Structure formats: structure tokens, C-alpha cells
Amino acid sequence: MPAALPIRTRLATSAGLAVAGLSRRIGAGEGSVIGGRVLLAVDPGALERLAAGRTIALISGTNGKTTTTNMLAAALAARGEVVTNSTGANLMSGLVTTLGRAGGSAAPAVLEVDEGLLPKAVAGLHPSVVLLLNLSRDQLDRIGEVRIHAQRWRAALEGAPSTAVVANADDPLIVWAAGLARQVSWVGTGQRWRLDAYSCPNCGEQIEWDDAGRWACTNCSLARPSPHLALDGDDVVLADGRRVRVELQLPGWANRANAAMAAAGAETVGVDVGDALSTMGAVAHVAGRYQVVSVADVRVRLLLAKNPAGWAEALDLIRPAPLPVVVGINARIPDGRDPSWLWDVPFERLRGRLVIATGDRGRDLAVRLRYAQVEHRFVEGYVDAVRAAGVADLDLAANYTSFQDARRELARA
Amino acid sequence: MHDSRVSIALLYPELLGTYGDGGNAVVLAERLRWRGIDADVVTLGAGASVPTSCDIYLMGGGEDGPQALAARELSESGALHTAVDGGAVVFGTCAGIQVLGTEFANPDGTPHPGLGLLDVRTVRGTGKRAVGELLSEPLVDGLPTLTGYENHGAVTHLGAAVRPLGRVVNGTGNGSGDGSEGAVAGRIVATYMHGPALARNPALADLLLSWVVGTALTPLDDSEVEELRAERLRFVKRSRWRRNR
Predict the structure, then answer these.
(1) Residues A248, A346: one domain?
(2) Is this complex scored with an ipTM above 0.85?
(3) Which of A132, A204, A392, B7 pairs with A119 at a CA distance of 20 to 30 A?
(4) pTM: predicted TM-score of the whole model, two decimal places
């Protein structure tokens, strides 16, 4: 049971939630951001107080945060109430609003946290467990270098000896980031993206992979730790050799990897891995991802990919050629202002089909597709883009704010 | 006239490829193929031995650690120096301009020796990181306005043996206070327009290719990229207007 909340925190919470509710009702958004700001303005120490005495799991990484958060929340919800920021409000304001909604209950919290905020969240929330998914190039106009996150995480976890860490053994940046944590449960995810980790985060020398996916630095002792739990095809293999089938509604390897991470996270708070995985199987779509919407006579499945590593996976999920596909690209602040990364995505894999390029930066995409020798057209507006494809059933893949625009515009049409 | 296939070396994309820099190799190769000229992209991973016989060498942007590793590998092998002596074209973006110079800054600010192929010296900047649209008027004949995106914390000083690629209209460029952007010396061109700079500047791509092919190149239909260029120029104009209001 959380310690009884002081009057100031209770007042702050009511004020914040009232503002959040108002913001939702007038259609300004989910309200977490404004509500959280109000809450923190009234009681700057609210986060720590709302967290006190509660089991807290934090999830961070470049890709898969929202999905893994939903999966872990589903696994824990089998035992009772869970509070979670399942729609991805992962900044301080979102965390504090989510915890505020839990009020005085002792419900465990499963919270997605922005990569940049994780050190502060670890220090302020004293989580029971932190899941570190992966780190790759994303929004470099704001972050500068991916490795900066790894450095800050490493220092934050060194200073949190009572926090358990669940970490991806196949991402060298993650392994280094978790390297000073007291207790780590390593998960073999079979991650395929390696482009950000060829130079060792520890010493700068080269990292080499063998055919089995094991990696080691050619100079220092940084190497793939032996995993406690590993994804192997459609199965999760446990330390004792037991195999558990991963049966998800969500498609693709990346989601099975998310499930493996969430299962290991559930295990640290006492949930059986098999039970956790079977509960996660019910998660059907996550904040609109994989959702099918109908526009006039067209059924559109929505896919989200935000950066090269995410797109490499999304291109595998898009239904095959010759079916056309709509691809939406924006470069607003949450996306990163610089769409240079389009050239790190193997769009050549879309050859043999028509691609409708759309979004604020659809013209950058059109130029990229031209050089990839992919047949394409630039069409402004999501409804027109979907119509231009000329088929009854198609996939629309988009990056973050483009995905939100598409969801909103298609729902209104 | 260049009588055989053009080979384009992409140097250490896993170390110098933070911002889709590999796109420049794709742009160069496709612009040759569309004109009926054979082209090969030779991707040279870290640790690979660098051939001296390629026609064009590309160096992209990288984070500090990988950049130093790339500089060390290239200076040990000496292959790029041999290729340049033989008339090869070199195009470097972001970390590329720094590595090509005489020295650049380690993460701790101490100097790290560069390849010395360009008479430029890079030090750590003291102000804000330069991030955003970089627009410059070219100082090389025959090129239209150069448009790209920059993201760097360093400042590059040009020596007497190089001239700037352009004069900054929007953004920071070399950041040395003289308004210069990039550097050119012989067939070496370097710029702070990072990543796929040649995708947005097809005339610059064709300039590099014309040095290799030895003749003027047939024009291509670049209407799609012209629309993109026009959109980016409008964007810069609008944001400058808003800033100055």
C-alpha cells in the first residue's frame, strides 16, 4: 500500500486530473501532458510520492516501448489492477498523470519512459524492474548521438542497486548500458539491427558477430552475455531448457522479441513466463498500430515505424507486392526534423508495386523511392493517398506524427 | 572519356554512416546507370582493406568514437592517399570533412590527427550544436544553391590550400566565423550538409561524376527533386522570415 498521500499531492492530483479530463472533453488530446504539468506545478515532488510503496516497472528503448508496455501490463493485469500509460505518454507529465489516476491504490504501475527521461525516472520512482529494449539511431537532430543514452542509463542503473534490470543481450549498446546494474536478467532477442554498434561503446574498437549471432569486442571484455531467456523462432527458451510457444495476435519477429522482454519482466515480479506469454497473446492492437480502419470501401491496416531499425521490421510486415502500399513521412519535432534516415531504410524491398508517398515530407520519400527504383506517386492527404492506391484492402505505414495524422484523417472520412 | 565501369567506394558505412550517408553512393551509381554508364558500389566495412583503384570515395558522418576508429584505419592503410594521388574523387560529409583534414577533436577535446588530405583543421565548438537546414550559395562554377541538413558540434577552419564550397545563407556550415561552408581542393569536396547531400543536390552529384567520366553528362529528368528543392528553399525562407520578424 502506498504511504498515505499528503494533502498537497492529493490536491495536485485532483487539479491535474480535472484539467486532463477537461482537455479530453474539449478534444484537445489525451490530456496527460497538460494535466501532468498542472499536477507538477502544484506539487513538484508528486512523482516520488505517487510512486512510493508501489511495484513499478519501467520500459525504455528506441523501438517497441508502447507494445512491450501493453504486453507487460496485460501479464500483470491477470493478478489485479494495473496502472499504465498504454498510449505512449512517456514524458514526465504522462508518468505523473498515469500515477495520479491510480490515486491511493497500491496497484502496480507499468510505465513506458522516453529514453532521455529514463535516468530521472529511475532516480525518482525507484522502480522494481527496468526493461531495456534496444538503442538505435532515432531523432538525431535532438539527441546528437545514440550512445549518449547508453552512457546516461549506465550511470543511472549503477546508482539503483535495488532495481532489477531486464536487458536485451543482442544489443551491445544495451549490454553496456546495463553493465553496472546489480542484478540483470539477459534476454536473447535475436535482434537484427547492428548498424549502431559496430564500434564498441566501452572502448571504441570493433565489435564482431559470429554466424550464431554471438558478438564480442575485438579489444575489451564486452561480449554477449549468456541469456537467461531467449527467443528461438516461435518459442521462448528458458534457462532450464523448457520451451514455451509465443502465440501473438501482433505480427512479426519484433513483437515476439517484445513479448520475450515482457515475459522476462513479468518473471522478475513473480509471474510465470508461460502464464505471462499466454496472457499477452490477447493483445490485438496497441495505440492504433495494426488496427484496420475502413475508408469508404477501402480497408486500411495501419502500421507504425519511426526509424531505420523499425522500418526494417515494418517492411517485412507489409503485405507483399503487387499490392500497393501507402507510406507517410513527417519530420516534426517528435519525428526528428531531419529525414536523412530515409536513406538508411531498404525501400528497395518495395520494388514491384506502386507506393503512394504522402505526409509533410512525402517529397523526400518520393526522391528516395526514385533512386530505389520503386514505382511511386506523391499524393497529398491521407484519404486521397488511400484512394489513389485503387484497391479495396491495403497497408498504410507511417512514422510517428504521420501515423497520428493518418489515423485521425481516415477516421473522419 | 572514361572507358570502363565507374567504381564508387563507400568507406566504412557502419562507422561513417549515421545519417543515411550511404545514399550518396546510390545517387551517384543510379545517375550513371540512367545514362547508360556502368557503375559499381564497393562497400568497404571496417577492417576491410581499401583498394586504391576506385574512381570515387565517399565518407559520411559518424559519432565521435567510430569517427576516430575510421580515421586511424584509413591513415594506417594509406590507400586513400594513393587513390587521391592517382586522381580519384573524394566526397566527404560531416565527419568526412573532419577526418579528411589535418586534425579533429576527440570527445574530450584533445586533437586527433586526420588524414591531411584537406588543409582544414577542426576543433570542438564552444557554442550551441549546429542543427538544422543548411543553405549556401556555391562558390564553384555551374552549381545552383546548395541545400542540406547539418548536425555537428565542431568548428572547421580552412587553410590556404582549400577554398570553401559555398557561402552560408542559412545555418552554420564550417562555423569558423567567415561564413564559409565546406571545402574544395582539387577533386576533394567536403561539406557539412550531412547524409544524402547528393540526393538534394543532383548538380553537385553530376559535377563529381563529370570529373570521373571526363565529359559533360546528358541531362536527366530531375523534376521530382526540383520540387523537393523548391519546398526546402521555401521552408528556409519562411522560417527566416519568422525569425526576423
Answers:
(1) no
(2) yes
(3) A204
(4) 0.89
